[in-house]
Design goal:
Shape: globular
CATH superfamily: Ribonuclease Z/Hydroxyacylglutathione hydrolase-like
Helix content: 25-40%
Number of strands: 13
Largest sheet: 6 strands, mixed
Number of domains: 1
Mean pLDDT: 92
Low-confidence stretches: 20-24
Number of helices: 7
Radius of gyration: 20 Å
Structural class: alpha+beta
Order of helices and strands: HEEEEEHEHHEHEEEEEHEH
Distance between the termini: 68 Å
Length: about 250
Amino acid sequence: MKIIIKISLIIILSLITLNCNSQKKEVFKPKVVYKSDDLIITQISKNSFEHTSFQQTHDFGNVPCNGLIVTNSNEAVVFDTPTNDKSSEKLIKWIKETLHCKINAIVPTHFHSDCLGGLKAFDQYQISSYAYFKTIELAKENRYTIPKNSFQDSLLLKVGNEDVVVKFFGEGHTKDNVIGYFPSENIMFGGCLIKEIGASKGYLGDSNVSAWSNTVENIKKQYPNVKIVIPGHGEYGNKELLDYTIKLFKK
């Protein structure tokens, strides 16, 4: 009887050890996979990459601007273009030549140039562009390159066998800001609607400050299990970025 108990304990301990080791292996360490003077690409999960380009501004200096690439089965969807066509061309070539992915869509998350400043390059490669209908209206008003396809409220795209969600939750940084969500890896691209930890309120020229917190609260309720949140500028993190943004703009 004692022998049976000992054997049972050994089996249980072995299973616990194997489970702990497998959990350790699942932890992904982010790594920079491409870097030039005007474009940085960082792998942040098995199938997702943050792209960062730069925009010279009068009030905030040379600002790093983030976007997201999600991939599955040799297909990709990109959120926000780099800030200019030169950097966008580098990004497109890297996705095609290094990831060997077909780009199904480019999605600017609002109308500012840090989201669609490099859209012309995507057009030249005949990559489909999608934007919230207000983003298209505002791009026309400001004489920017105009995304080709519009949607109302939300959009579901396919990347390989997985879904990618784009949705408008309300006004904040701009009246047209949307967020992107990649359910298979619980990754959110918040764009300029979401602030990095410690950030100031930033540029408010086109914002709705009174609605901002409520908009982000709606996002938090919709995606309570989000693991990675990428802001439009600065360091990505977890859902604490949502809490920080809510608090920053709370009345």
